[in-house]
């Protein structure tokens, strides 16, 4: 049975840097539709203290989600050194598809079809799939790609995660400061080397009362158009859910790989917000009765790039593998974990082992 290995990666990080000061002129409302009386300087300062998100990136006005997905994908294909026509599948992870400046969402044609079109791929046997799975969508796309490769249905697969969340957020909601835009992509391929690539995976879906922790909702400002829909989340509920369930899911995946936490070189966790990620990693170590550990285990990009949902992990992977993430690198033969949690609520994780020669 072939192994599923990453042979190339790429990213697109928008150039427009949005700092906390850019929200000083915003008008914020609470969940009860009441205007928040605190100064915006206070609101922004508290937000940064909790999330550690100082900056985030937004796309240009003329860019769509499919545009930046195609840019990251093109770089990944070039890095892989393969003919784009040799791709068997394109799996595109997203929550909202293309969104225009009027907040109108579009899934027709599908995002993956648009990515294929913008890449100029003509091969009709290259199948396009959209993976709509919340923030864990890119990781789930990797899990699907692994199944397709191990079943013999594919040799080369592009897995891209992209989002323009700046257009999906309520301008009157403090939570808009969490979200950002970006794209990350990898090409995975079948390898004859055994025991490498994706060696274990785990997906769990909690769809009972958790179903509305992250969803679309109307603006918090009752004086605006209530027919428009934006990202709406129950932050405290998500935090409690993630802290309870994500560490266990990660441990289950590491156990499934026949490893222990001490065998893991890096954990690339979805960059939701720094407070939650730190708490998850701390709880994970407690499950292994480990009291002291290094922050080097868990790279963080959320401080400068914000929460780009499905794009977080592939972007971080590309930064590290290209040697552009100070203090972090991957080693031949080492094990890493890729893990995420998001709308659904869904959780997933992968243990990935690098080939002996990348």
Automatic annotation (TrEMBL):
Database matches in Pfam families: ACP_syn_III, ACP_syn_III_C
Query: What InterPro entries does the record tag this protein with?
Result: ACP_syn_III_C, ACP_syn_III_N, Thiolase-like
A GO term, aspect molecular function: 3-oxoacyl-[acyl-carrier-protein] synthase activity
Gene3D superfamilies for this protein: 3.40.47.10
Q: Tell me yes or no: is RNA-binding among this UniProt entry's keywords.
A: no
What SUPFAM superfamilies does this protein's entry cite? Thiolase-like (SSF53901)
Give the GO terms filed under biological process for this record.
fatty acid biosynthetic process; secondary metabolite biosynthetic process
| PANTHER family reported for this sequence | 3-OXOACYL-[ACYL-CARRIER-PROTEIN] SYNTHASE 3, BETA-KETOACYL-[ACYL-CARRIER-PROTEIN] SYNTHASE III
Which interval of the chain is the signal sequence?
A: none
* Name by which UniProt lists this protein: Ketoacyl-ACP synthase III
Q: Does the keyword Transferase apply?
A: yes
